[in-house]
Amino acid sequence: MCFSRPSRIWIRRYAFMGHGRCVGVRLAGGNPRSDFPRPSDQWYVSFLVEDGRSTPPAHPGPAVGIDRGIKVAVTTSDGHFYDRTFLTSGEAKRCRRSQQRLARAESGSERRKRAKNALMIVMRRVRARRTDFNAQTAHVLTLGYGTIVLEDLRVRRMTASAKGDLDRPGTRVAQKSGLNRAVLDKSWYGLELALISAARYSGTHIVKVPAAYTSQKCSACGNVDPAARESQARYRCTSCHTVMRADVNAAINIKNAAGLAVSGRGDFGSAQSVKRQPPLPSTGLNSSSTTRGILVP
Ligand SMILES: [Zn+2]
Predict the structure, then answer these.
(1) What is the DSSP pairing of strand 80-83 with strand 147-151?
(2) How far is the CA of 271 from the centre of ligand 1 (A)?
(3) 154 C-alpha to center of ligand 1: Å?
C-alpha cells in the first residue's frame, strides 16, 4: 500500500484493519528526501496478512516452458505470448532529458532535486506497469498450467546485459540504456516472483532449469549450433532444417530441460496448429493494456 503523506493515524488505522488478521506492519521509509530508493514523494506500508487460504493439491494441467525475452516479454512453449509496452516513447524522452539534467546539476541543488523527482515519477509508472503485467500474466499461466518451467535467472541475468543487444539487436531503442535494461531485468525476476506467488493459490509446480544453450539448441533434433539463430526472431536448424520462432524454440528447450518431453501435439514448426493449443482460461485481463495471443510462425 502506498500513500503520499505518512501519518501515524493512517498507520494505526491500517494496523487494526481486518479485525486482528493483520499480523505484521512494516513502514518502509526513512527521510523522503534522503537517498531513499523508492520515489521520493510516496511512502509505502506493507502488511503481512494471513488470508486463510491453503495451496490446493497439485494442479492437473499440462506443463509449459517459458522464455522471457526482450522483444516479447513472455513466450510459452506452446506458442502463446504475453507482452506489454512498459515505457512509452514520450516517457523515454522525458527519462533521457531528466538524466541529462541530473548529470549537469550540482549536488544538493534544487534543480537536481527536481530532475530526480521527474525521473522517479516515470520510473514509478514503469514499475507499476511491470508489476501489474507480471501479476496478470502469472495469474493466467498458473490457472492454465500444472507445471511451469523457467530458465534459472542467475545465468540468464549474467548474459542479459552484455549479450542481450548482440543476440537480439534493435528491439526497442529506448531499452538500450542501462536504466531500462535494469528495469527489464527486474521484470524477468518479477515474473518469477509473481509466478511463485500465484502458484500458491493454484497448486502449480514451478521448475527452474539451467539456461545454457536454450536459444542455440534445436528443439526438434537437439542439434546445438549458434549459426542456427538466423535472426533475432527466427531459428533455422542447420541439421534437420526445422524453422520456427526463436523464442518458441527456446521455450520448448526450457520445457524439455525439466525432463518433460514435448507432447505429440507439439507441432510448432511451419505448420503450427492453432486448434491444438491448450485453451487459456478466460480472466478479467485487460486486453487494452496487455497484449497476448498466439504467435504466428
Ligand atoms: Zn534440428
Answers:
(1) unpaired
(2) 16
(3) 27
